[in-house]
Write a structure and sequence with these properties.
Elements (H helix, E strand, L loop, with lengths): L2 H35 L1 H15 L7
Helix pairs in contact: 1-2
């Protein structure tokens, strides 16, 4: 693989990482707004977390 192609791939990977960070941040903001306006949403999240990780926080 030539160096030019490798640099282009690395730039694309960096760009995708940045996009991923922005999308995760936007999703967190949306989730917080939903939970702030819907008290049941917070409880549903707690129940889902307990189902996945149990009360001790370890993945089941």
């Amino acid at each position: 693989m030539d160096k030019h192609y490798e640099r282009e791939l690395l730039r694309e990977i960096d760009s995708l990482r940045e996009d991923n960070i922005r999308l995760r941040s936007a999703l967190k903001t949306i989730r917080w707004k939903i939970e702030a306006t819907n008290p049941q949403a917070w409880r549903m999240r707690e129940v889902a977390h307990e189902a996945l990780y149990g009360n001790d926080g370890e993945n089941k």
